[in-house]
Every structure is written in structure tokens, then in C-alpha cells.
Amino acid sequence: MKQRRISSHEFARYIGSALLAIAFSTSAVAAPKAGDAAPDFAGRTVDGEVISLSAYAGRVVVLSFWASWCGPCQKELPILEGIQQTAGKGRVQVVAINIESRDVFRSLARRMTSVQMLVASDTGATAQRAYGVNGIPHMVIIGKTGQIIRIHRGYSEAGVDDVIDDLNLALAQ
After folding, report:
1. pLDDT for residue 167
2. Stated pTM of the model
3. Which of 11, 93, 139, 145 is the right S-S partner for 64, CB 3.0 to 4.6 Å?
4. What is the mean pLDDT of the chain?
């Protein structure tokens, strides 16, 4: 098969079209930051029920996006469960949002039945886009009024104290 040379004009038009497609495929909404109102959608339960943050008004909400293959996420999950157990569901709701396929999520959720935190799925990436997630773990601490207090990207043991400080700040407000 003989290959055809494309002109620089054709190449520029192709690149321009590709960049335009990328621009329109990404969310035009800027990622939320501290002080912004938190998007309401926070994934779905294993039964497919929508998790809305408005259901937790008056409580601090901790969202954390994670995957089973993510080593730092695996270190963070027990800390999230510890937060849920220590603070109690009357004051704090932790939502661990898995970003893997629905089948993988269902398998994981079956093994996590003893946890007190809420385990959710975001297979359509709706919540990920709304919260500007571009890497995991990605934790969002939301105050009682529904405003974002802090966003923590990544995980380190040294950062756990900062998370606790942010939670205490959110609980005191």
C-alpha cells in the first residue's frame, strides 16, 4: 500500500480539529477549590442508589476517590474508616468513592461489608469530573454548610496530621 504525504496545511487542520475535540470533551467547569460549594453528586451505592451530599447537611463529609490497584489508596482506606468510627455518623460521613468498573466495585464492596464508612462507585466519572480529580487518592473535606474546606491530593503518613487538623476545623465551624 502506497502512503500519501500530507501537506503541512492538512496536518495543521488535523491537529486543530483534534485540539478542539479535546477542549470540548473536557469539562468547561473549573475544578472546585476550598470555599466553593461542593457538587452534590458523590457516586452510587452498590445497589445503584445515588449518593447526594445534601442528604448529609449539617455533617462534615469526607470524600476520597480511590482504586484497589492504588497502593497509597490502600494505606488511606483504614485511616478513613478510623475517622468514621471515631467521629461517628452523626457528625461525619466518610464516602470512599471507587473509580473502577462496576464489576470490580461490586466485588470490592462485597468484601467491605463490615466498614462503617459509605463505599461508593463512580464508574461514569461524573463525580471525578465535578471534583477535578486527576489522580488518586483525592480527598475532599466538606464542612457542615456544604462548602469545601480542603482538598488533599495524594497520600503520605506525614499528611495525616493535616487531615485531622482540617477535620477538627470543619467540626468546630
Report:
1. 94
2. 0.81
3. 139
4. 86
CB 145 within 8 A of CB 64: no
Assess whether the previous peptide bond of 137 is cis (omega < 30° from 0).
yes
- Contacts of residue 78, Cβ cutoff 8 Å, sequence gap at least 6: none
| Closest listed residue to residue 63, CA positions, set 159, 5, 132 | 132
Q: Which domains does the chain have, with CATH numbers?
A: 31-172 (3.40.30.10)
What is the model's pLDDT at position 15? 39
**Cell 503541512 belongs to which residue?**
8
Mean pLDDT across 83-87: 95
Continuous segment of H or E residues that includes residue 63: strand 60-66
Q: Which residues are CB-contacts of 123 (< 8 A; sequence separation ≥ 6)?
A: 99, 100, 101, 102, 105
